[in-house]
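Follow-up to my earlier ticket, as requested here are the two runs.
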Amino acid sequence: MMSYRDDRLHELHGRMRIGIDAGGTFTDFIVCRDDGKIETFKLRSNPRSPASVILAGLRQAAGTRKADVVHGSTVATNALLERKGVRTALVTTAGFEDVIHIGRQNRPELYNLTPSTRIPIVPRSMCFGVQERSYYDGTIAEKPKLAELKRLKIRLRRAGVESIAICFLHAYRTPENEKLVAAALDGLGYLCCSHDVCPEFREYERSSTTLINAYVGPLMDKYLGELERGTRHSISIMQSNGGFMATREARRHAIRTVLSGPAGGVVGAMETARLSGFPRILGFDMGGTSTDVSLVDGHARETMEASIDGFPVRVPMLDIHTVGAGGGSIARVDEGGLLRVGPESAGADPGPACYGAGDRPTVTDAHVVLGRIAADQLVGGEMHLDVERAASAVDTIARKLKLTRVAAAEGIVRVANANMERAIRLVSVERGHDPRDFALVAFGGCGGLHACEIARELGIRTVLVPEYAGALSALGMLLADQVRDHAAGVLNRPDIEREFQRLERVARKELPGAELIRSADIRYEGQSYELTVPWHAANPAKPFHQEHRRVYGYENPEHAIEIVTVRVRAKRSVKKPKLATNASLWSRFRTVRRQRKIHSSGAWRTTPVLDRADLQNRDRKGVVPPVKHLRGPALVVDYGSTTLIPPGWRYSLDKFGNLKITS
């Protein structure tokens, strides 16, 4: 555990708060006490029992004291990606049982004549139809018959279902039939209805979102129950939209947590960069299993059109793109003799070869071979690495490609960089943004090792590595607000104001004292997709035209618009860590400068190795002024991350403790 006193980060009032980010390799903890003391530490993740790691960390962090915990969970995400959800059934309108299998007929690979078959999370035999019908205007044409529902309940029980997703046509407009069926099927297991999970039109997206929620919901319910039974702390869950919610909501809406960890990273990167004067950033979060990239142009961007493992998810999410490139990503030579890195990861068990259990080469092993990670460098020296084992693993690649060990290691890093560069281009260049106009904020355990090399390829001149880079996602969870999103489909409805008021009544009841923010999904008449814009009651078209021009490059004020969905966000601020400028030194770090041979920019170089506190100098009043710019090469090490600064790059520590690197 790294413990130090830091007056920049403290609670104004209240009890201890703990942020937890459960990653694929490590689980990060940040403890914020009311006296200004900060503790941050890492534990090895356990994919087979994630709750046990969380509980162990809470005991280590708080002992017998009570704390408010905000937790980023990967339970729902991993269950979906690994297809390890519960046995789930879909109950839908008779005649529409194939909606999940038909999908939208989109072709992600336009010129691939033999695309791989997309396998739904439930087989066709687990899709059941009910004779019912509601119309788009809210008229109920046919109610389900009780006799049919009794027979359906028997069939579902015989099928051994553990969870049921109910999704009827136009239930977003009239939910009575879904409620009737849910009452009839009560007692069969976990139940969720589309009018509660995703009350919006488009039956495929609504069915997919509700079905995924049912598929992973029981696992999240079990996981949170285990946490609550094992601790006395108050636990909240980070959402994909950048806010957190109570566990009772997470049990019901597990679908809202699929990007909870990365969302914490976006919040943390945005807030720390803003203090250093960088409102426009590209977030680059490289952990052990994957890399998450995002773009912030003054504010974090959201999307309603996310896709998880090829299936649409229609809930508000921060716009984050994830690629299978992390410190644990496995390198291999494919059938054509090309070097590939990821997406398969060594994870926490067995982990990279240098961890002492695995034998397959990873990105981390390549860094060990290149001298960028020493045997006693990770987790403040608490974790010893097997350098020889890492070299042997990289040798398997070198032999296949007939390269030297160093060339193979350098190739692994370059391929990983190329994968991550493509991800950054996707969220920037492909969406009309020039990456050179942004600062690259690198965090996660591995982000700093790759940031400057990636920035150089993209033409980015400034790299920012936050002080808490190794646990920034956990810190972001403590900087987040409590948020709850509500929506209603209103296409072709005249009572839009009444729907706004209804949603606001629900929001006030669920989150008393919250700030209420209105928005709407609007499109030009005849368009297929909408833009979400702030609600302008006097002239709803005005913000839509402006956003349409920004996104698509043109607007058409003469064309009629359609208001498709109205949204109300309830946001309640909580007491957060406060960042100030009068920092004290980290008592744990040494101030002795070291040097060692490190391979960077194509050559071995004698490189200074600095603990991050080496860059800080107190004046007589205890204030830490920014130091003068130093020049690379250098390796800057702290408890949770490492930053490689190539030759020619300048670096300094600003007054907020962020490491600023410029070319």
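Run two:
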Amino acid sequence: MARNIAGKLSAVLFGPPRDPLAPETRQHIALIAFFAWVGLGADGLSSSAYGPEEAFKALGTHTHLSLYLALATALTVFLISTAYNQVIELFPMGGGGYRVATQLIGPHAGLVSGAALIVDYVLTIAISVASGVDALFSLGPPSWQSQKLFAELALTLLLMFLNLRGMKESIKVLTPIFLGFVVTHVFIIVYGIAVRGSELPAIVSATLGETHALAGQMGWVFVASLFLRAYSLGGGTYTGIEAVSNNINALKEPRVHTGKITMFYMALSLAFTAAGIILLYLLWNARPSPGETLNAVAFRSVIASLHLGEGPSYLLLTITLLLEGALLYVAANTGLLGGPAVLANMANDGWAPTQFSSLSSRLVTKYGILIMGFAAILILLWSGGLVDLLAVLYSINVFLTFTLSLLGLCIYWWKHRSEQPRWLTRFALSVVGLVVASSILVITLVEKFFEGGWMTALITSSVIGACLLIRWHYRETEAQMARADALLATLPAEPVASPPPLDPQAPTAVFMISRSRGAGMHTILWVQRLFPNIFKNFVFLSVGAVDSQSYGGEGSLEGLQREVHSVCSYYVNFSHRNGIAAKAYEAFGTDRVEELTKLALKVREEFPSCVFFASKLIFVHDNWLTRFLHNQTALTMQRILHLQGMFMVILPMKVD
């Protein structure tokens, strides 16, 4: 009764389960370019709320250099985006920077990139929510300030809930905010530049003259250093560009084409907005004002020139800033889309617990969403939601990932130069991108190391250390399982011409089997040894767990089905060759326990005199880590079946 009630409540809150094998399921959860732009591009576009301001303020009194800054910002966005188009082409299965570093440089480079991305996505959630709340609360009375942290925590929990329902559901809810931001900011930027556009020739001439004058006084090295410092401190503008390549597996077919269109939308909108805002600062002579963002100062001046009257002008400014703050909240959603995807890829490679590649009934990586969301909540509690502190933590890891990805592309194009007719162009593009990304990384790390950058390095190093420990454990376990497979799974199992007939009334042994044939044969041989000549029928239950990798590419689900069928056929044939009647049941789903329970009830109806058997790894040095890293399916099934009046025996398989 309680299980039924919980199931109904879950369906109401998170929506009904989806059939992972239904042809329409993939069509439903896949994103077209527009929705991908909304869901994955919000992180990059929202950075225009703080990235250009940081760069402009770093120029100090030498604001004439902002003209170069606007051009460099737009060019850098397109440069990095074009480089990541190569990532989309080479890795259409997704994984982005993690997959590039893993396959083109090495697994440990991939680990560093993956750890940096995980930390960066957690900070994306934290800083975006905190910045958005700051923007919204700045419009209210001072008494609201004490409630900011509570609001940040509540909004983070709401985002987690929306994403547990599914990506499209969260994106549809947030789309009006995204479009509102685009419309208001495009209007203000276009109008602001058009009104003062006649001044641009004079500004260009003055900029060139002032630059030469400054170089004559202080030297070109000073001018270059000042510009590069401002350019690097505005590096937050480029965050989020990698989100498309990280989540290419979530896009609608053809994925590469959809990914490139999404990347174009993202690059065009970010380059226009970021460079346009910097030009507004210059054209409208915006200067920092206490209690206001530089965007607010510039937008107020532009809106005032419309001569709408004090009330309508204030209303338009309020709407614009509200949408800007709300878009930061949409950007936080990118962390809950991209972070779990990185965790799932790392889990498939053994760097993270296997649970992080599991899907919920709504076909989302629920454990990844939960870990990313709660990690962001811990960061918010630790920092008190202070955006200045979070910004320092946030600004480094994304360029570490950029650098490793572009280094991997350089290596790839150089190695394949004899096979690719356009290798030189792509190699040159990757080299330029590598120089830009690594320069920003080094300058930012040096500038901000003692302001909190050391904390980012410490957190990322801790994640790397944990991943190394997890990988070592899985490798040791896999080595022992491989020895068992080699020893037990080579027993002959060819089909027989006349298999023995099933007797539904006879004693029946029901085996819950996995992909490891060695573990399955271990269980079968122990049953034959402990209960000689007792069971006349062998029944095998196998559930194909549909996880994030199952949607990794064309034919992945079909491959899973073939693998499960092959394993079942092996056990049935082995039983027949040994004179035992046998049958297999197959099922597929996101919850292995639920599917096994359904199969068990079905088997009991057909074979009433049945006993269930399963194996469980027993570690000589058992601890909380081994229990966390390995599922407890056997124990869970034993409890469920006992409550249903069925008998189940768990046979241990020792692992040293």
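The only thing I checked on run two: The CA atoms of residues 189 and 382 lie 37 Å apart. Let me know what else you need.
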